[in-house]
């Protein structure tokens, strides 16, 4: 049986009988207002503004105190925003390291390396940032990257920890890149987005609004010089972000906010169901406080990933891809009946394989 080496094997994988706990792709529909954009008959398909359509940036600016449209760049998902940021930093900073918590989202180290920078890790303690180790390793870095709620852990950092990170990065004079793609999916408290002149916020419409395939994300920074350098980089790479998708992002922002609360209620029910199910299988895991992932410990995860797929038609991700070779990641972005069936198959596998 061939070992499955990376998540790329699974992305887009579908088929009869497959239960996928793999890709973090919401199965819930976008707001109905998004679909109304498709009925417009008069539309241009010419190039758009490299920075992003002004109406979308104006609406986003209302969510950030003191911001205006010039503080934003609309990108092809949060991934492009991060990629551009690292490449810009590589060109302007003499420092060559970027600090990130481990476990991390599996693309982070690659993005940093592709930009000619070096990833440095601070290991989480009980799924949370250790401020002592964080501050020690942040010295000499060009930037630090955080993600709360976290993919893959589902953990949410304490507000005081986030404020301390603000202070640390400001004191050290380095950028704080905050990946906020799950900011609207927190079950235990209100979200807190780090603030400051050195903060770069990254977000997308993929998770909150179920618009993954449309690839609309953005970066926000009070540093308009950095924003301009990002635009200059983008004009020579992807040029403008899909203009039709940006219209749909505008519609999503104008939809009633009750949409987000209703979606969050569904995610929380699923969180409770899968957490209880995995605990019943006697697996060791943190209870997620946000996002839609669980990250249980598992013996020989790479074998588990292959066995579950080839023998049981269940997709899970290897924790090694996230920097944790003793765990597997499951996304609960699927309905409860499928979660129930998937847990049944995992239980059968564990019973058979000890």
Write up what this structure looks like.
This protein is of the alpha/beta class and 354 residues long. The chain has 2 domains: 20-29 and 258-353, Aspartate Aminotransferase, domain 1, CATH 3.90.1150.10; 40-254, Type I PLP-dependent aspartate aminotransferase-like (Major domain) (Aspartate Aminotransferase, domain 2, 3-Layer(aba) Sandwich). Helix content is 38%, strand content 14%. The chain contains 11 helices and 12 strands. Strands 2-8-7-6-5-3-4 form a 7-stranded mixed β-sheet, sandwiched between helices. Helix 4 links the parallel strand 3 (97-102) and strand 4 (118-123). The two termini are 19 Å apart.
List the helices and strands and how they pair.
Layout: E1 19-20, H1 32-36, H2 54-61, E2 72-75, H3 77-92, E3 97-102, H4 108-114, E4 118-123, H5 131-138, E5 143-147, H6 159-172, E6 175-179, E7 199-204, E8 217-220, H7 224-235, H8 243-254, H9 258-280, E9 293-294, H10 301-312, E10 314-315, E11 317-318, E12 328-331, H11 336-353
Parallel strand pairs: 1-10, 3-4, 3-5, 5-6, 6-7
Antiparallel strand pairs: 2-8, 7-8, 9-12, 11-12
